[in-house]
Amino acid sequence: MKIKELLNINESLKNLARTLLPKSVDNYKVYKMYSKIREELNNYYTQRDKIVLQYGIKNENGSVSILPENPNYQTAFKSLNELEEIEVDLKIETLKLNANDLNLSAIDLYNLVKSKIIELNHDKGAENE
Prior knowledge:
By secondary structure, this protein is mainly α.
């Protein structure tokens, strides 16, 4: 999975981690998964900040940013894109969860299923199987 994909699923995984699942083992697996992804993203944020500090310009408030008019904008943009394209091997086990046990938004479910974090099982009586 690429860093940019982790960035896209981060909020959805955080929402899943806040959900109390019926099985303790699933709660444990979600937290373990979330911890692995947070560790990778913390490293990403550290490296991103280094790039911003290297190529950015400090404003009067002390904030550093890289605006399009910055002469280093293209170089910084390229470095940030390369950073987001890094492939990370998280060895995440897909969780098989019952859709009725999840109180998540449609976008959270989409993100988590698409990234193979979860696989949805439906009860026999569930609509739109």
